[in-house]
Design brief:
The complex is a heterodimer of chains A (about 550) and B (about 325). Chain A is mostly helical. Chain A is about 75% helix and about 0% strand. Chain A has two domains: about 240 residues, MetI-like fold; about 260 residues, Orthogonal Bundle (MetI-like fold). Chain A is globular and about 70 Å long. Chain A starts with a helix and ends with a helix. In chain B, helix 5 crosses helix 13 and helix 8 crosses helix 13. With about 325 residues, chain B is of the alpha/beta class. In chain B, strands 1, 2, 3, 4, 5, 6, 7, 8, 9, 10, 11 and 12 form a twelve-stranded mixed beta sheet that branches. The N and C termini of chain B lie far apart (about 55 Å). Chain B folds into two domains: about 180 residues, Periplasmic binding protein-like II (D-Maltodextrin-Binding Protein, domain 2, 3-Layer(aba) Sandwich), CATH 3.40.190; about 150 residues, D-Maltodextrin-Binding Protein, domain 2 (3-Layer(aba) Sandwich). The chains are: A mainly alpha (about 550), B alpha/beta (about 325). Chains A and B meet through helix 6, helix 11, helix 12, helix 17 and helix 21 of A and helix 1, helix 2, strand 2, helix 4 and strand 7 of B.
Chain lengths: ~550, ~325
């Protein structure tokens, strides 16, 4: 009875009930830069699509009339695509909640390392991750060996559950990091107040954690939904057959098997519409939590000190770490043997990849920062759209755009930087935007009073408080660009390979061991880049 | 900055090339790598042609053809190296290619009469497995056994398309029934050959759709005699890899010379241990040691180009319908 009354009073005192949302900037260089960036992103997505449609129309005008004709196979692909993406997003996000909560309220040696390591699966090339997962969950994998030893029936990974398992493996780390960021945004003072009021864990959850989750989860699920929407190799390989056909595979088929450009463009438009729709829904649900500001004290969680809660958190961290780390360990072990077989041609390719990665990081961060500071729904939605555009469509469209002016091979690396920038932007924006909004909500009024505007505001207020998010976003971008196979395959000549392309070429030439070595080099470099940027960001804050 | 330097370098290279004619060859990825026949082809042809050979790569044969169709008459390609019999119909329809003018004593198990496309190597599709694993002798026996297989998707891979046409030619109207019977043997369908072969090497399936020449790689390059390819009673479907010259080429004579050179000793003797396929013309020294151990199917199957082109879409729909259940 007493506790209940306490909680009610507490609720009245929490600033969440008197929310003040900073108005988005309507003028000034900040707003303009954000809108220009969003405009440029939209243009970079629309022009390639338009180029493909234009080409289809000039080649075969009649085909464009069939633009929105979907056969039963297309509808089946659409259904499967949506269903697996939805399941993958929901399961990744929900499983991430206990892991993020455990990491948010526990301090233990190696915690920082665990948090960084969580990023690794997300950065793996698809085929590497699939083979690593199979070494654990496949026919002769560790799990089945264990089950057989215990006299239990073997599991079969192929099917919808296998697809979802792989997508969770890829995306759980991202979800954990995004949600953890939400937890860390709750000021220490709120937990202290909660403790003074004698709130139980359930009360803390209802008053502090639930509003935060409501603000964070929709955006997190959205990004993962959008990534999984364009899944192709994972879905097909682990899906077990043509029942697991995704829209992306249908696009692939249109280009290669049917050479039907109209159909490819139509399917790309459908993907775009799906992500735009999902973005609008999730940005509407995920309204900001508004905890007010704190003094950046270290968080102490008096509510979570009981033994059962400690056990639960320990289990969550241990299970997630095992799920993510065992396949990674397989990649490392398999790769070591291949290191001695690496061809000399791998190193120029590695250098190309590093160049592409760093260039893409610079452009992505500039765009994402501008767009995050603009704080407008349409700008945020525009920033998410690249996730929806199939890399193949984007690459082919750019190819058609470049063709009249230059030999595509001469522009292979700049185009790769452009595409990697577009592909990483949604993640960077998803990381930066909520933090930027909170900085304005918490400190905007004071800064306004002080007449702190323009670059001075950016330098003194925004950038220092944004630093952990900037580091995380830059690390993710650099690693993604490092590992992306993407359009380079469409543009490159043999001298201009990137590391992932070289790895695929090794596989295509029976050099499986060397390919595993290359995968290890790729993993080490991606992870190294991620680690450097992420560390830089977190050096500024206790996280 | 570096890209500026590269661009400037290219500009100068282009000017220098005004004296040395350049032959641009489009080919698939693995052919132009240092393990493929690409380097040998380039070095040997440059010895005699007084020209500069440049390779431009795309993922595989189908990606090559798509790219050439996207580029149309504007393409810089003089020659394409690496289409195959399953793509020849579409390639011929595109009207992008000119007659080759090549004559050679082909050692293919079939008669080669096409005047545009020049075969440079060939192989049989086959299921490959461990020598001590299951060895069914036909599609029906495979379907009745509990052997597990990995296959490639015909929509995104050349071997996958080959398998589709294989079953179609061997079984005709019964093809859907064969696919339905095979459904429970198929562990999974991968986007391409690399993924399928990788899965097989990881032990995910007993058999993988590959080539009868795959065991040669393991035997010659890795000293591993433990892999074998299966000959089927229905016959094994063939893949013939071909080259052709572009009608829009500004180096028609050089291109023609290159096509003739492909069927010559220098290239053909390199094919078996770089591309791991049978040479289109048996080299003077015969096949390399180890090739005599390979499985040789009794019946070569290959649909005529026009029939393959006509059967493709319906066969794909049957495949999809049977396996999507």
């Amino acid at each position: 009875m007493h506790a209940t009354r306490g909680e009610t009073q507490a609720a009245d005192q929490f600033p969440a009930r008197r929310r003040w949302t900073a108005p988005a900037p309507t003028h000034g260089p900040g707003a303009l830069a954000g809108r220009l960036a969003a405009g440029a992103v939209c243009l970079a997505l629309v022009l390639p699509l338009a180029a493909i449609l234009w080409r289809a129309a000039t080649e075969n005008p009649a085909s464009v009339m069939g633009l929105f004709r979907l056969g039963p196979a297309d509808l089946a692909a659409l259904r499967f695509t949506l269903w697996q993406a939805l399941l993958s997003a929901l399961i990744s996000t929900l499983l991430a909640v206990p892991v993020a909560r455990a990491l948010a309220r526990r301090r233990f040696p190696g915690r920082g390392f665990v948090i960084t390591l969580m990023g690794a699966p997300f950065l793996l090339p698809v085929i590497v991750a699939v083979l690593a997962l199979l070494a654990v969950f496949g026919r002769g994998g560790l799990v089945n060996e264990g089950l057989t030893a215990l006299g239990l029936p073997a599991i079969r990974i192929y099917g919808l559950h296998g697809v979802v398992l792989a997508h969770v493996f890829f995306n759980l780390p991202l979800a954990v990091r995004l949600i953890l960021q939400g937890w860390q945004a709750i000021p220490a003072e709120r937990f202290r107040l909660a403790a003074q009021l004698g709130l139980r864990p359930a009360g803390v959850f209802r008053l502090l954690e639930a509003p935060m989750l409501r603000a964070t989860l929709p955006g997190t699920a959205l990004v993962i939904f959008a990534i999984c929407l364009s899944s192709f190799a994972v879905a097909l390989t682990l899906g077990g057959g043509p029942a697991a056909t995704t829209v992306e595979l249908a696009i692939y088929q249109s280009f290669r098997f049917d050479f039907d450009l109209t159909r490819a463009a139509m399917l790309a438009l459908i993907q775009l519409a799906l992500v735009a729709g999902a973005a609008l829904v999730s940005l509407r649900i995920g309204r900001p939590a508004g905890f007010g500001s704190g003094l950046d004290r270290p968080v102490t969680r008096w509510d979570a000190d009981s033994l059962p809660l400690r056990l639960i958190d320990g289990a969550a961290i241990a299970l997630a770490a095992a799920f993510l780390l065992v396949p990674l360990a397989v990649i490392v072990l398999n790769g070591i043997g291949g290191l001695t077989r690496l061809p000399a041609s791998l190193w120029p390719a590695t250098l190309n990849s590093l160049e592409v990665s760093l260039a893409a990081t610079a452009t992505t961060m500039a765009l994402a920062l501008a767009m995050a500071l603009a704080r407008r729904t349409w700008v945020e939605t525009a920033g998410l759209l690249p996730l929806a555009v199939s890399g193949l469509v984007l690459g082919t469209g750019l190819f058609l755009l470049v063709l009249p002016f230059a030999a595509p091979a001469t522009l292979a690396l700049p185009v790769t930087v452009l595409v990697n920038t577009l592909m990483a932007l949604p993640f960077a924006l998803r990381i930066l935007a909520p933090v930027a909004a909170r900085i304005e909500a918490e400190h905007g009024r004071l800064a306004d009073h002080l007449g702190l505007t323009g670059l001075a505001r950016l330098r003194l207020l925004t950038l220092p408080r944004l630093r952990p998010a900037l580091g995380f976003a830059a690390g993710l971008t650099a690693a993604l660009a490092m590992g992306d196979l993407g359009v380079i395959a469409l543009f490159a000549d043999p001298q201009q390979a990137t590391l992932p392309l070289q790895m695929h070429r090794l596989m295509g030439a029976y050099q499986m061991q060397a390919a595993q070595g290359a995968a290890l080099v790729l993993l080490a470099l991606s992870f190294g880049l991620f680690w450097i940027f992420d560390r830089w960001g977190r050096a500024g804050a206790e996280a | 900055m570096r890209h500026l330097a590269i661009a400037a370098g290219l500009l100068m290279a282009t000017q220098a090339a005004a004296q040395t004619p350049e032959l641009t060859v489009y080919t698939y990825d693995s052919l132009a790598t240092e393990w493929g026949p690409g380097p040998v082809i380039e070095a040997e042809f440059e010895k005699t042609c007084g020209c500069d050979v440049t390779f431009v790569t795309a993922g595989d044969g189908a990606a090559l053809l798509s790219r050439l169709r996207l580029e149309g008459a504007r393409t810089e390609a003089d020659v394409v190296l690496g289409l195959d019999t399953a793509l020849m119909g579409a390639a011929a329809e595109s009207g992008l290619f000119a007659p080759s003018g090549v004559t050679a004593e082909y050692s293919l198990p079939i008669d080669w009469t096409d005047e545009t496309f020049v075969p440079f190597d060939w192989g049989y599709f086959a299921f490959v497995g461990l020598a001590d694993g299951p060895r069914p002798t036909s599609f029906r026996a495979l379907a009745d056994s509990d052997a597990s297989i990995v296959i490639e998707d015909p929509r995104s891979s050349t071997p996958g398309l080959g398998l589709l046409l294989w079953v179609k030619q061997a079984y005709g109207d019964e093809a859907p029934a064969i696919w339905e019977a095979l459904a429970d043997n198929i562990v999974t369908v991968t986007p391409g050959w690399s993924e399928a072969y990788g899965l097989f090497l990881e032990g995910e399936a007993d058999l993988v759709l590959s080539y009868t020449t795959s065991p040669a790689y393991h035997l010659i390059a890795e000293d591993d005699a433990g892999k074998t390819a299966l000959a089927f009673d229905e016959g094994n479907y063939m893949q013939v890899e071909v080259a052709a010259r572009l009608a829009s080429s500004d180096q028609p004579e050089l291109a023609q010379q290159f096509l003739q050179f492909l069927t010559g000793e220098a290239v053909q003797s390199a094919i078996p241990t770089t591309n791991w396929m049978y040479p289109a013309v048996i080299p003077d020294a015969g096949l390399p040691e180890g090739y005599e151990t390979l499985t040789v199917p009794t019946t070569p199957l290959l649909l005529p180009v026009a029939e393959a082109q006509a059967a493709r879409d319906a066969a794909l729909e049957e495949w999809r319908a049977a396996l999507a259940k």
